[in-house]
């Protein structure tokens, strides 16, 4: 990704104003522009239904499986669908501050090409024909800026489309908008000095998550039915959970990563992956199948040449009961009451449906964080500090926390780097043996120590980053919503704690604040069992009626 230094010659505030003005100008190209009230309630999740034309709502409310079927059969034109999603995405920006730019000219030109192809050939161009897809800002689009959340990167222009976008475009996708990312790309929050804070559509006092929080908020508001995020510590799963949508962190080296702007020295010490967020599990499946069916390893040799497999699970198909392990807590931080209630609801329903459910005790999850946080910034955070110093932009609170206040962030010598990589591999082996001993197909566990946190408080990553360390695929799904009358801390829980971090997490819980916010859980499988994780999720949903409450 090329880097230019012109941005550093101006005050960072001027660059931020230019960024926001540019974004607003792309939205102003719509006719009519979105009608966003000047005063917004805390919860905006239902507002699009009353602010948009019914024709737009009818299209954007379709689950992706129905929408795609209508596009593939010619019942809906790509132009009509793209237009609808452009308007809903633009409104979503006004409600949650989740976009870096709308792409009306590019998207509509592409949609018209697809419609012309369909009219001439009487068939779709590919399996995603006409489907609008949103993308996280650091995934390069030719000719467009790629800042990765830094003011000093404002003049970085992508020379070509990222490989993942090339694959999806060949399958017929339409890219209609790009979404916000945080400074450093290493927050479970989405906030930057370029665009400000992306808020949770269910409660603006809470975070949408990060670092794919723009995607999480946008998909929750149905400004996209399928979006592209990335994950090195929870960055797909955190926003999916916080915003009540579906998300998948794939196994590394299955989905292309060439052509993104990603800023983290030594990033290969903890593999970062690209993956989907969607309004339904179908969106996760079609994304993975379409990309892997394209054999992207032929042009990106680092990828594993592993086809997408049709995996069957459950006693009806395999003659063997599905065995799910439940990780109730990680022995460091107890989840808040709504998370524990969701775990019990889902595990009970699974058991009632004939699925075998067993306890899955944690294995040294505190050690996992020590290894991870030593490998995240092997340069001691120097590159990030330099990039912020170039523009003079201030450090955001969570940037300070993850780099400057993290005792494990040190510039590593070759010997120290080797030590931590050996620790990583040893831990991976030990965890595999732990899993073998318990003999489970998947693990059901929290996504975080609570639901969507208050801004600048998302400092406990272990429920997601654990699985980045061992490189296990993990899918997030909504279960229910917080109920302040039920989800209360009992007196026994108030008096005990697993650790200082546990006590700190408990102080963050307020049932009044979190009432009505989505409660989500995570399904984790073994490395390269992405297909199995999604098959189990679909099987569980069929057997248990998940989600137990409508999110929108």
TrEMBL record:
Coiled-coil region: none
Enumerate the GO terms in the molecular function aspect. Answer: amidase activity
Residues given in the record as substrate binding sites: 185, 211, 232-235
UniProt xrefs under InterPro entries: Amidase_CS (IPR020556), Amidase_dom (IPR023631), AS_sf (IPR036928)
- Reactions catalysed: a monocarboxylic acid amide + H2O = a monocarboxylate + NH4(+)
The entry's keywords = Hydrolase
Q: Is Hydrolase there in the keyword field?
A: yes
List the active site.
136 (charge relay system), 211 (charge relay system), 235 (acyl-ester intermediate)
Against Pfam families, the record matches this protein to: Amidase (PF01425)
Q: Which residues form the Amidase domain?
A: 81-534
Q: What class of enzyme is it?
A: hydrolase
State its Enzyme Commission number(s): 3.5.1.4
Tell me the domain of life: Eukaryota
Which family is it part of? Belongs to the amidase family.
Q: What is the recorded name of this protein?
A: amidase
Q: What is the lineage of its organism?
A: Eukaryota, Fungi, Dikarya, Ascomycota, Pezizomycotina
